[in-house]
From TrEMBL:
<keyword id="KW-0067">ATP-binding</keyword>
<keyword id="KW-0460">Magnesium</keyword>
<dbReference type="Pfam" id="PF01467">
    <property type="entry name" value="CTP_transf_like"/>
</dbReference>
<feature type="binding site">
    <location>
        <begin position="124"/>
        <end position="130"/>
    </location>
    <ligand>
        <name>ATP</name>
    </ligand>
</feature>
<keyword id="KW-0808">Transferase</keyword>
<feature type="domain" description="Cytidyltransferase-like">
    <location>
        <begin position="6"/>
        <end position="134"/>
    </location>
</feature>
<feature type="site" description="Transition state stabilizer">
    <location>
        <position position="18"/>
    </location>
</feature>
<feature type="binding site">
    <location>
        <position position="18"/>
    </location>
    <ligand>
        <name>ATP</name>
    </ligand>
</feature>
<feature type="binding site">
    <location>
        <position position="42"/>
    </location>
    <ligand>
        <name>substrate</name>
    </ligand>
</feature>
<dbReference type="InterPro" id="IPR004821">
    <property type="entry name" value="Cyt_trans-like"/>
</dbReference>
<comment type="function">
    <text>Reversibly transfers an adenylyl group from ATP to 4'-phosphopantetheine, yielding dephospho-CoA (dPCoA) and pyrophosphate.</text>
</comment>
<dbReference type="InterPro" id="IPR001980">
    <property type="entry name" value="PPAT"/>
</dbReference>
<keyword id="KW-0173">Coenzyme A biosynthesis</keyword>
<comment type="similarity">
    <text>Belongs to the bacterial CoaD family.</text>
</comment>
<dbReference type="GO" id="GO:0015937">
    <property type="term" value="P:coenzyme A biosynthetic process"/>
</dbReference>
<dbReference type="GO" id="GO:0005524">
    <property type="term" value="F:ATP binding"/>
</dbReference>
<comment type="subunit">
    <text>Homohexamer.</text>
</comment>
């Protein structure tokens, strides 16, 4: 049986750091579901469908990646696709405490689903979607931070 992982996030928008984690996860797992968190408490720049479309564009050449969205408990989504792992990227020590809390809660909800952390590539350790949006908002060069389709979408959003 092929191993299945879920790589969750808000991906508002997807960055080269996210893409690095997804590509590396796709080398380890038979199937990786990149799932967009539909969190009604946040005010995203891109709606869920726009984020899904962007992720599909930038992962189209990775055959074992599927893109989806979810609302609710991540472990419930993972069970629904028969995933045995949750794939998370860590940028810095500051990410660890938050991720540890989430992982511990997920273990309480379903101890059969493991969470695996992948350290981000050093060149992306500072990168976040928030930083990308801030730079793009003021017409800064984001070409080294996001895939080309994402750069185009950000320019379009901020120029409309």
């Amino acid at each position: 049986m092929a191993s299945i992982a879920v790589c969750p996030g808000s991906f508002d928008p997807i960055t080269l750091g996210h893409l690095d984690i997804i590509k590396r996860g796709a080398k380890v797992f038979g199937q990786v579901y990149v799932v967009v968190l539909n969190n009604s408490s946040k005010n995203p720049l891109f709606n869920v469908q726009e984020r899904i479309d962007l992720i599909q564009k930038v992962t189209k050449d990775i055959p074992n990646v599927k893109v989806d969205s979810f609302q609710g408990l991540l472990v419930d989504y993972a069970k629904s696709v028969n995933a045995t792992a949750i794939l998370r990227g860590l940028r810095a020590v500051s990410d660890f405490e938050y991720e540890m809390q989430i992982t511990s809660m997920n273990r309480v909800l379903d101890e059969e689903i493991e969470t695996l952390f992948v350290m981000t590539n050093n060149q992306y350790s500072f990168l976040s979607s928030s930083i990308v949006k801030e730079v793009a908002k003021y017409n800064g060069d984001i070409s080294e931070l996001v895939p080309a389709p994402v750069k185009e979408a950000l320019i379009k959003k901020f120029n409309s």
